[in-house]
Amino acid sequence: MVHEIEDFHGVYLLYCQNPRFKGRTYIGYTVDPNRRIKQHNTGSHAGGAWRTSGRGPWEMVLIIHGFPNMISALRFEWAWQHPDKCRRLRQVSVAKRRSESAFEHRWRMVCHMLHTPPWKRLGLTVRWLKQDFKLDFPADLAPPLHMPIVFGPVCSKKIHTGKDSSPCKPTNAPSATTTEAESRLGDFQDSIIPTVTKKTPFCAADDTRMTCLFPECTVVSHMTCLASHFLQSETDGSGHVIPVEGKCPGCGLQVLWSSLVRHYKGCYQDLTLSATQGCFAVLEVKSCSSSGQCAANECCVSNDRPIGKRQLRPGGTCRSLGASGVGCLVSSPAYDDSHMYYYCPCETGLTCKGSGIIDVPLGEVGKHLHLVVQSPSCR
């Protein structure tokens, strides 16, 4: 099965099968792996590199993909091609060992690179296109947990624009005047729910709206606010600006930051509820009209955003009661089975501490924090 990936940016490793040049390798960047390997094997006149021209056939055996853009991928490509000149690999023994083949040396270098910032925090995927060439990661250089190791062919796919423009299969879908991405964003523009309570210096000027991957989640957030929320859960204390992953404040979906950025750029627009549950196995969505229809540790959150003094309309989703650090509404009433909420009330032992940020027309938002009870000796 060919895996289709939208907005593809990958750095690949070629292996020469020509008996005269067997064992030689080549590193390159591509947005279309299938087209690129054909160019290499056809020659420089067809767009292939001069270093591979006339030395084929070549096999594309490994590709690292998931880079956010072309610049990021090209920097990775250059460092992999020139590890001796890369300042980020100065602490690594980059010289080729006598016992190593060129292929093994390239593999050892990329193992070190995936453990080196900034690449170790990117949502990359290590894909073996030819399983016969697979090498294991050294025990001390296992990839970060958020980087999967996968097998099989891959095909680039253009971001959905109302018709299927994938090069992996014929274009036969009808065109549309309004794309699914535009429609989805339009639905959210009228129902913006702030998801983070820590105001950043960029928040006032940042109008970049990010949505959750989960199709039923209605949360929308500023990019910088959501990044700050994700970073609060990181424990390394390194002062990072861009997070690796985090939980959606609305539905609790554990998601990679890179996946949210790709979603913002138009990817995953055909994602279904079953697909997200298959990938992340996070939660089961239950519709409700009052909190009494939800589980004991849940409340019913409205799918609508109020405008002016408009009352709640029937239709909500069961969500977990507010845990520590999750966004809340200071003026939210106490839990009542007959109520529907815009923000879930606090769990037992927590209180909603205001942040000074006003969500018009609901009021001040904050986050759930543990109650601080002073002992008699402190009074």
TrEMBL record:
<comment type="function">
    <text>Catalytic subunit of a heterodimeric structure-specific endonuclease that resolves DNA secondary structures generated during DNA repair and recombination. Has endonuclease activity towards branched DNA substrates, introducing single-strand cuts in duplex DNA close to junctions with ss-DNA.</text>
</comment>
<dbReference type="GO" id="GO:0004520">
    <property type="term" value="F:DNA endonuclease activity"/>
</dbReference>
<comment type="subunit">
    <text>Forms a heterodimer with a member of the SLX4 family.</text>
</comment>
<dbReference type="InterPro" id="IPR000305">
    <property type="entry name" value="GIY-YIG_endonuc"/>
</dbReference>
<dbReference type="InterPro" id="IPR035901">
    <property type="entry name" value="GIY-YIG_endonuc_sf"/>
</dbReference>
<dbReference type="GO" id="GO:0008270">
    <property type="term" value="F:zinc ion binding"/>
</dbReference>
<keyword id="KW-0539">Nucleus</keyword>
<protein>
    <recommendedName>
        <fullName>Structure-specific endonuclease subunit SLX1 homolog</fullName>
        <ecNumber>3.1.-.-</ecNumber>
    </recommendedName>
</protein>
<dbReference type="InterPro" id="IPR050381">
    <property type="entry name" value="SLX1_endonuclease"/>
</dbReference>
<dbReference type="Pfam" id="PF21202">
    <property type="entry name" value="SLX1_C"/>
</dbReference>
<feature type="domain" description="GIY-YIG">
    <location>
        <begin position="7"/>
        <end position="90"/>
    </location>
</feature>
<feature type="region of interest" description="Disordered">
    <location>
        <begin position="161"/>
        <end position="182"/>
    </location>
</feature>
<dbReference type="InterPro" id="IPR013083">
    <property type="entry name" value="Znf_RING/FYVE/PHD"/>
</dbReference>
<dbReference type="GO" id="GO:0033557">
    <property type="term" value="C:Slx1-Slx4 complex"/>
</dbReference>
<keyword id="KW-0255">Endonuclease</keyword>
<dbReference type="Pfam" id="PF01541">
    <property type="entry name" value="GIY-YIG"/>
</dbReference>
<dbReference type="InterPro" id="IPR027520">
    <property type="entry name" value="Slx1"/>
</dbReference>
<comment type="similarity">
    <text>Belongs to the SLX1 family.</text>
</comment>
<keyword id="KW-0862">Zinc</keyword>
<keyword id="KW-0863">Zinc-finger</keyword>
<keyword id="KW-0234">DNA repair</keyword>
<dbReference type="GO" id="GO:0016787">
    <property type="term" value="F:hydrolase activity"/>
</dbReference>
<dbReference type="GO" id="GO:0006281">
    <property type="term" value="P:DNA repair"/>
</dbReference>
<dbReference type="GO" id="GO:0006310">
    <property type="term" value="P:DNA recombination"/>
</dbReference>
<keyword id="KW-0233">DNA recombination</keyword>
<keyword id="KW-0378">Hydrolase</keyword>
<dbReference type="InterPro" id="IPR048749">
    <property type="entry name" value="SLX1_C"/>
</dbReference>
<keyword id="KW-0227">DNA damage</keyword>
<feature type="compositionally biased region" description="Polar residues">
    <location>
        <begin position="168"/>
        <end position="180"/>
    </location>
</feature>
<keyword id="KW-0540">Nuclease</keyword>
<keyword id="KW-0479">Metal-binding</keyword>
